[in-house]
């Protein structure tokens, strides 16, 4: 059975071992810079894992890389007492449940890419189910299965990396919306003055994502003639988000200003999410909330200024327990049919 998101009926696997054969799934976590593939057992044990860069690849080239990883893993376990029952894929954008097309704006050639069709053809004749969903949904599913949201039916995963998104679990159900775009909070309006740049990536994402922060640092450096701070010895074209946080620790004035403003924006974002959805736990993940995890208490303090008071007093702010593996585990959870 093949499905994208939750648009087709399916039955979950009930036991890990079947007639002496262990049941497992292949999981794929695609980001704007890499593809990670793994085989995960029904108990959540990672049996094999590999990450590859997609730098310089676009369109069908990225799909072929995914397909080759699936073929490689199927071949690797072909003679083992392990049966691959499903493939789950996490994508950095939207998987349209009615068509199986994927919109991934940070991957060239993926405006409406037929990923489900490609993988279906690859696995033709095999009794292997295919499930595809967006990264933010997979991250909250991963945390619900093996991470910080194990014991709750109401949780939100706030992903801040190259983009910004939210995976939303309410009353035990994942929210998708009319066009499968629920959680695209990079388009939150957090600036009273509209700028043309917001039309492409959204206001919040332009200001407080990893890419947004780096862009703002570069813009600031370009307009300062006598700058002598932390970034003066760094090749600006190679700047990464970790450099900005390092500069913050060294009290660089540009980094201090932009990070302080970002903390404020993350707090306002958290307040909006909490007021709208009343979660029990708000989980912070993505590449920025590696180094940015130390600001969670400050983000909560900012959120308290803005959020519905009864909701903010009950919610727990937590770092991701799965880190960069949240989407990978979530794709596995999705493939297992437990949601």
Characterize the structure shown.
There is one protein chain. By secondary structure, the protein is of the alpha/beta class. It folds into two domains: 17-143 and 325-335, ATPase, nucleotide binding domain (Nucleotidyltransferase, domain 5), CATH 3.30.420; 151-320, ATPase, nucleotide binding domain (Nucleotidyltransferase, domain 5). It has helices at residues 60-76, 115-122, 135-146, 198-201, 203-208, 210-222, 241-249, 253-277, 296-306, 309-314, 326-335, and strands at residues 17-18, 21-30, 34-41, 46-53, 82-91, 94-95, 102-103, 129-134, 155-160, 164-170, 173-174, 281-285, 316-319. The strands form three sheets. Strands 1, 2, 3, 4, 5 and 8 form a six-stranded mixed beta sheet that branches. Helix 6 (210-222) runs antiparallel to helix 8, helix 7 (241-249) packs across helix 8 and helix 8 crosses helix 9 (296-306). The chain is globular, with a radius of gyration of 21 Å.
């Amino acid at each position: 059975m093949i499905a994208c998101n939750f648009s087709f009926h399916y039955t979950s696997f009930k036991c890990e071992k079947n007639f002496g054969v262990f049941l497992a799934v292949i999981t794929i976590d695609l980001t704007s810079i890499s593809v990670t593939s793994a085989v995960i057992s029904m108990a959540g044990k990672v049996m094999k894992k590999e990450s590859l860069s997609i730098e310089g690849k676009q369109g069908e080239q990225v799909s072929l890389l995914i397909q080759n990883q699936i073929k490689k893993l199927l071949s690797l376990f072909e003679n083992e007492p392990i049966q691959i029952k499903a493939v789950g894929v996490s994508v950095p954008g939207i998987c349209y449940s009615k068509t199986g097309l994927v919109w991934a704006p940070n991957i060239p050639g993926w405006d409406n890419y037929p990923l489900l069709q490609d993988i279906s053809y690859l696995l033709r004749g095999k009794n292997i189910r295919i499930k595809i969903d967006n990264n933010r949904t997979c991250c909250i599913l991963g945390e619900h299965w093996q991470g910080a949201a194990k014991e709750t039916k109401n949780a939100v995963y706030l992903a801040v990396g190259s983009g910004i998104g939210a995976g939303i679990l309410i009353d035990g159900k994942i929210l998708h919306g009319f066009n499968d775009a629920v959680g695209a909070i990079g388009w939150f309006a957090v600036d009273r003055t509209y700028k043309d740049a917001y039309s492409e990536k959204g206001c919040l994402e332009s200001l407080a994502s990893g890419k947004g922060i780096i862009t703002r640092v570069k813009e600031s450096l370009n307009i300062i003639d006598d700058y002598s701070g932390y970034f003066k010895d760094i090749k600006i074209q190679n700047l990464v988000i970790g450099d900005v946080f390092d500069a913050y620790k060294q009290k660089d004035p540009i980094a201090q200003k932009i990070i302080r403003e970002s903390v404020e924006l993350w707090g306002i974002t958290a307040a909006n999410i909490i007021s709208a959805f009343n979660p029990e736990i708000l989980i912070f993940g993505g590449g920025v909330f590696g180094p940015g995890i130390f600001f969670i208490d400050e983000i909560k303090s900012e959120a308290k200024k803005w959020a519905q008071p009864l909701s903010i007093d009950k919610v727990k702010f937590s770092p991701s327990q799965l880190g960069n593996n949240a989407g990978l585990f979530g794709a596995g959870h999705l493939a297992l049919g437990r949601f």
